[in-house]
Design a protein that fits this description.
Layout lengths: L1 H24 L10 E5 L5 E2 L7 E8 L5 E8 L5 E8 L5 E3 L12 E8 L2 E7 L5 E9 L5 E8 L5 E8 L1
Antiparallel strand pairs: 1-3, 1-11, 2-11, 3-4, 4-5, 6-7, 7-8, 8-9, 9-10, 10-11
Length: 166
């Protein structure tokens, strides 16, 4: 009987691991693979314009009515925590940039475009409506890596952030 319990326990553990592993590989929204939980891999990223944060995590989801939400948390390079929220639709309209973040006033905005399920482009505007950044997000074929490239207008540098799905 102890053998049967051990075998049953191992089978149950294997089933949980299999479900967890398959769930991690399954994107939450096949029409927009950028949705989900992501964590920055600083070692794989290249910060040519800004300082790398110590930690950067994003939780992105469709909140309904095609309204997308990002909850972006982490620790800046100087050790200060940050907690930013974005809301938007993929309709080309401008939405506030960084709700709840003192260094990103809501007078700044971002316009978003879903190119296809693996690609998103967006443009950041400053308070005077001038374009300051052009950004792209691309999700790998396996859905487990997202690369965000930020090109800063008027600067000869880029930031390339590599995120891993959690």
């Amino acid at each position: 009987m102890p053998y049967a319990r051990t075998s049953l326990a191992l089978a149950a553990a294997a089933a949980v691991a299999l479900v967890t592993a398959s769930h991690a590989a399954t994107p939450p929204d096949p029409t927009d693979l950028t949705m989900g939980d992501w964590e920055l891999n600083v070692a794989k990223s290249n910060f040519g314009c800004t300082k790398a944060p110590q930690v950067s995590k994003r939780r992105m989801f469709n909140a309904g009515f095609d309204m997308r939400v990002t909850i972006w948390t982490g620790t800046q390079a100087d050790g200060k925590p940050f907690n930013t929220r974005y809301v938007w639709r993929y309709d080309g309209d401008k939405y506030p940039a960084g709700l709840g973040r003192p260094d990103s006033p809501t007078s700044e905005s971002i316009a978003w475009k879903l190119v296809d399920p693996r690609h998103v482009t967006f443009t950041h505007y400053d308070h005077s409506d001038k374009v300051t950044q052009n950004l792209t997000r691309e999700v790998s074929a396996d859905g487990m890596t997202m690369t965000q490239t930020t090109a800063y207008v008027g600067r000869d540098c880029k930031d390339v952030q590599v995120f891993e799905r959690k």
